[in-house]
Design brief:
homodimer; 372 residues; alpha+beta; BirA Bifunctional Protein, domain 2; 3 domains; 9-stranded mixed sheet; 4-stranded mixed sheet; 12 helices; 16 strands; 32% helix
Amino acid sequence: MSKIPPGLLPEGLRDRLPPEAEAAARLLRSIMDSVASYGYERVSPPLAEFEEGLVGQLKSDGAQDLLRIIDPVSRRTLALRPDITAQVGRIAATRMAGRTRPLRLAYGGEVLKLRATQLRPERQLLQAGAELVGSDSVAAASEILSMAVDALEAAGVTDITIDLTLPDLVPTLAAGPFPLDPGLVDSVRAELDEKDAGAIAALGADAYLPLVHAAGPLDMAMERMRAIDAGGALQSRLDGIAGIADALQGRATITLDPTERHGFEYQSWLGFSLFGADMAGELGRGGSYTICHADGAEEVAMGFSLYLDPLIDAGLGWKEKKRLFVPLGTESDLADRLRSEGWRTVAALTDADTADGLDCTHQLINGEPEPL
Amino acid sequence: MSKIPPGLLPEGLRDRLPPEAEAAARLLRSIMDSVASYGYERVSPPLAEFEEGLVGQLKSDGAQDLLRIIDPVSRRTLALRPDITAQVGRIAATRMAGRTRPLRLAYGGEVLKLRATQLRPERQLLQAGAELVGSDSVAAASEILSMAVDALEAAGVTDITIDLTLPDLVPTLAAGPFPLDPGLVDSVRAELDEKDAGAIAALGADAYLPLVHAAGPLDMAMERMRAIDAGGALQSRLDGIAGIADALQGRATITLDPTERHGFEYQSWLGFSLFGADMAGELGRGGSYTICHADGAEEVAMGFSLYLDPLIDAGLGWKEKKRLFVPLGTESDLADRLRSEGWRTVAALTDADTADGLDCTHQLINGEPEPL
């Protein structure tokens, strides 16, 4: 193979330079602080685990998504985590299985994907989020979504939109009021994704036709869904959605696409995606799901996770730097005091160092900072 | 191979649980804030790079230390970084080569080692530090060591000790005042490490004998070193050490072992290790070194890095949690206000949730927080 040019990085891996690296750290900090204020305690799982264990935790694409590590020490194949949520589920089900529920956990760190997506060219992404283990009630969903909105607002996102979906609606209806041959469930879901009314009718699934037209702004979608007579399963979900909307008190625009399932393969009754003004693509997602314990027991949970990369790209988390030039011979006590007052001091090491060359915004005049 | 029990992690990789994960984040935050106050700008290189590139950057053990990743996308072998310093050097020499010097860069993040050491059972470690690129003067060393002391103090370390060494002293003396056959330099260094005066004499390197007894507290070591008549190279180094000690103004205990070289294989005139009261092992290290640019040019630099794991193990960064129980039915405005005042609220989701079960320290009495 040809020699790699100096400084070249593998596809999808990159350096964050100033001021972007600091913006990333500041955003992570504000999101973690926001989540901590709701009593969520931070956990920090390792960057890599046994491939076998990690695949077991991931409920969707799983194995194909993993970057594998050869580990001569364990003589096993390890894999880098493509997601932290599943690791938090593992912790809740093992080392923290004995803790009182609901268990509130938060996390923030790097994940590594095997492949970039069209939307995100990076394979290393910064993920942060919170998981509420032991409840998937409307109260749980309201707390998780309020926190997600708080965290996005703390990060500087405005005009937040939440797209809600009911991931298990079709299988639930198929097992109840709108019976479907189990072999047809996936086909009906696929045609609902396509909003293809003709194909749904051709499948003999006419009862599902009203769902095609129910996606949209919350009020409209709710009205259309309420008109569908499908008994308790649907009504309780709609009541849940109404309760969540109430709890959010107009802090976000809410839409409902009841049958959207892309990326919600492992969610149960509720899934959601988060968007912001002038930001390309989804900022985060979450919903209700099930954690499996080693003894086979299942436990409900609810959570959200954010990817910080789109926020950083949008210029959030950046703060004007006030850099104060400290000339050669300045008393170190003065520089100490200025730092303790919040200044970033930049000291000259030789006579050749200048305030301008060192990218300073302020200089010392008679021992006091003045703008340059 | 046998099945891996649920929750088992590979050797040397572990979960940080509450409150340790938060302590780690708090320590990293305080160290990065401290370094930023000196005008060091954060960079964040990726967790993995091309193996070939990463080995080129590492000046010591290098390749044997790496955990390798199979990357089907680049069709190259990648490696996980065992250290961030070398990556920062790469950034300084490539993407930030055009920036005015001195260039002040800071970093903090996870590194992954192939093997644990006797002192540290972890293979994933949290590293933070700062690099000053373009100078290795006494002023540069003084700034780097003052920052290291500040950062350790900010993290809560007391009674800091700095062990100084002069890594290139023997080769410098051998090329000048105390000529040595180039084939003997390594042997003399090895015997100096062993403090074996007899072996040094047997090598015919009598001029080096006084160095055996020069290690110790700074004043004593300096006095003994000053008595060695070895011309400018030694004197300028001793003057440098004296200047650094002056700049630190008694903020740390300083020792000097002029020929200690273990772990300083790539340092030039100055190396140092950092220690704290009641903390096992070294907390960090650093010194002066050389960065190689793509065009063959060399550039001097000076830096330090800390490992946060011993600080976390010592219980630093932990903060008493005040968790306020918020009963069912509490107005969300009240909870919002309490969070904005700095409280961590823990909301009841059902009547079964209790302040005690949710590990709260405070409850609401007439809308005001009271200790439980």
